[in-house]
Amino acid sequence: MRQKIVVVDHNGGNLASASTSVTFAAQKAGLAIDVIISGAPADIMAADRLILPGQGAFNHCAKAVQGPLLTALHAATEAGTPYLGICVGMQLMAARGLEHGETTGFGWIRGTVDIMTEAREAGLRLPHMGWNNLEFEPDAHPLLRNIAPGEHGYFVHSYALQDYDPADVIASTTYGGKVPAIVARGNRCGTQFHVEKSQHVGIQFLINFLTWSPSNMAVI
How many CB atoms lie within 10 A of CB 186? Predict the structure, then answer.
């Protein structure tokens, strides 16, 4: 059976590259999918899986995902549709963000997205840009299948999830301090790193997402 994958169009960047990457991942895994880029609520509700790429500031992306689009994202994921947020798409899962003022997030996971103070205090450059290793326990989650601890993802960000629930973080990286790299709660997950720029690790993660069958519904 073919899956309908909707890359959520919120007038942001990385839409085409995310679409291309998920198509390549499906081909590599021998999966039959149709990928569309859309912000139409009807397409969101009809999707088998949702991917929200994020590029730019938290408040800009949050304001772009409002009204009927946000209502559809809540309804679809509450009904069990798997969701993947990439970079700011992951950050939006949090309760709030403090980039350019306080902005309400989706509230799907606990936490605040704020400037990476520990990195700044350690004299590290912001934005955090480049390849960093992923730290996690082997076989800790189905989304980590065939990815080895220590492999690298490509990060570009100055803000990160803080004051989070450790149970929601399935992989971290270190940049001045511990930084959540992958979160998952129920049928909703997100990566702080750009899977579409992370070569074989990103493609394997997308394969895992396309074949993921969450056992629990999301909890709001």
Answer: 20
Q: What is the DSSP string of 28-83?
A: HHT--EEEEEE--HHHHHH-SEEEEEE-S-HHHHHHHS-HHHHHHHHHHHHTT--E
Please give the pLDDT value at position 57: 86
Q: What is the DSSP string of 3-24?
A: EEEEEE-SS-SSHHHHHHHHHH
Name the token pair of 150: 């220590």
Per-residue pLDDT tens over the stretch 134-144: 999 998 899 99
92: closest CA among 48, 53, 41? 53
**According to the model, what pLDDT value does residue 215 have?**
67
Percent of the chain with pLDDT over 70: 97
Q: In the predicted model, is pLDDT for residue 220 greater than 70? A: no
Contact 174, 111 (CB under 8 A): no
Residues with catalytic function: 87, 194, 196
**Nearest alpha carbon to residue 91 among 64, 73, 112, 60:** 112
Whether the CB-CB separation of 155 and 126 falls below 8 Å is answered with no
Task: Give the H/E segment covering residue 90.
Answer: helix 88-91
CA–CA separation, 124 vs 25, rounded Å?
34
